[in-house]
Amino acid sequence: MLTYTALTTLPGKSQADALGEALEELEPAPTGVGVFEVEDGKEIWEVGGYFLEAPDDIALALLSAAYDANPFVVSEVPDQDWVAKVRRELPPVEAGRFFVYGGHDAELLPSWPHWFVD
């Protein structure tokens, strides 16, 4: 099953929040909407919606124009096993004396220093 993303950028948090709220009202309705600052301190925000069916291009164009945003870019997201992808591509992380790992990486546990107490 294909899913879709519709993403745009615009300046200003309040404007981005308002666009995110308006995006939630579209038909077909998005399954989720996100509003994120693209670069800290630059006041450029990304607004995105995730859809189970292709979003209405005309409605997206009207929204981007109404909120002075860049045109939405709609992309198909291929159906894939995201759990398997994360297992393949997200390695364990050593942070000082901590080792953060998923259960599937238990065999990769490092040998702890002698001062480590269980």
What's a concise summary of this model?
With 118 residues, this protein is of the alpha+beta class. The chain has a domain at 3-77: Alpha-Beta Plaits, CATH 3.30.70.260.
Describe the structure.
The chain has 118 residues and is α+β, with helices and mostly antiparallel strands. The chain has a domain at 3-77: 2-Layer Sandwich (Alpha-Beta Plaits). 25% of the residues lie in helices and 31% in strands. It is built from three helices and six strands. It has a four-stranded antiparallel beta sheet with strand order 2-3-1-4, with helices on one face. A two-stranded antiparallel ribbon has the order 5-6. The longest helix is centred in the first third of the chain and has 11 residues, at 13-23. The model is unreliable at 114-118 (pLDDT under 50).
